[in-house]
Specification:
single chain, 335 residues, alpha+beta, Pemi-like Protein 1, Chain: D, Translation Initiation Factor IF3, Methane Monooxygenase Hydroxylase, Chain G, domain 1, two-stranded antiparallel sheet, flat
């Protein structure tokens, strides 16, 4: 980085400050609240160094194990999404079994979180993976491939009555969940640090709610693909085979909507509009078919198909909203 001349400024009558080069700050992954070490050299010049770990103070969270399994699991996940590097779980002796059960589940659904320290009444979970080890765009691409792979395995499994393929749908769901939560953590951290545009590839923070809605919709699509797969394994493929065309159509619309994110490109609005229309038609058709059915497994599977179509519509509408925001600030995604 080339040298540059900067003016010293006086703040509050007694504090002298000088701005830091933006490139240097970003290269060292620093931001508001980061810590740096300033040393005076023998020749009178100053040496500025980021502290170990990117110069950020260690982010810790303390979770008191109150209530049952679900409440504790949600509390830990929310601390992870908020960016905690260390999560301390404190509990009474009678809660030990529940806490260990939750910790076992956490290692399967939170990417890079491990229990590295414990003592009676206390467990420490550490996020050992750098928050930006996988870029937002790459993590999204992996999540997208996971969801589309689930729908592909489900479709082929129903077509061929292949239980191995149907089971593969279920097995992929954990990875999709882990990537979703990793992306949610990246989004939260980027927004807190004021780096959303660089990290997320968005034009302004106004896009973030719609991008998150699309991510959550994809995660829920994976959940409902899993529900359909479980129904097929428990009740047999026969009740679902008449609806294979619907499964194929739903998978196709998911593929199109997911391909328009995270950053809508030229022509995205028209394609998103068409996808939303298709998803709406599918929802209506599935609802009518479900209302005529009298078999419980079929009804439950059709309900999940309708929900997948609904989440796909939400994704398409998120693309439209993001494109409209870009147009409103002079970055029209449809030149």
């Amino acid at each position: 980085m080339a040298g540059s001349v900067r003016r010293i400024q006086l703040v509050g009558g007694s504090t002298y400050i000088v701005s830091l080069p933006k490139e240097w700050v970003e290269n060292h992954r620093l931001g508001k609240g980061s810590q740096v070490m300033i040393s005076t050299l023998p020749d009178g010049s100053l040496l500025l160094k980021p502290l170990a770990g990117g110069g950020r103070p260690e982010r810790r969270a303390v979770v008191e194990a109150r209530g049952g399994y679900g409440r504790l699991l949600r509390a830990i996940i929310s601390s992870y999404i908020a960016g905690a590097r260390v999560i301390e779980v404190r509990y009474s002796v009678d809660q030990h079994e529940t806490v260990m059960e939750v910790v076992g589940q956490i290692s399967r659904i939170l990417l890079g979180v491990e229990m590295l320290d414990s003592e009676p009444g206390l467990v420490r979970l550490y996020s050992v993976l750098d928050d930006y080890a996988v870029s937002f765009r790459d993590a999204y691409a992996k999540m997208r491939r996971g969801v589309e792979g689930m729908l592909e395995s489900l479709t082929r499994g129903l077509e061929e009555e292949n239980k191995v393929l149907i089971t593969a749908t279920i097995e992929r769901d954990d990875l999709v969940d882990r990537l979703y939560l990793y992306l949610a953590r990246q989004m939260t951290r980027a927004l807190l640090e004021g780096r959303a545009t660089q990290v997320l590839g968005i034009s302004s923070t106004a896009e973030a709610p719609y991008l998150f809605l699309a991510l959550k919709s994809m995660e829920r699509i994976g959940d409902h693909a899993t529900i359909i797969a479980r129904i097929a394994l428990s009740s047999g493929v026969a009740p679902l085979r008449p609806h294979l065309d619907i499964v194929r159509e739903v998978a196709s619309t998911v593929h199109t909507a997911a391909g328009l994110l995270p950053g809508p490109g030229p022509g995205a609005v028209e394609e998103a509009q068409e996808t939303a229309d298709k998803a709406s038609v599918i929802r209506r058709r599935v609802r009518e078919t479900r209302d005529r059915s009298r078999r419980l497994p079929e009804v439950r599977a059709l309900d999940s198909m309708e929900r997948i179509a609904g989440y796909t519509q939400d994704m398409a509408e998120a693309v439209i909203n993001i494109a409209s925001i870009r147009a409103s600030i002079g970055q029209d995604s449809n030149p």
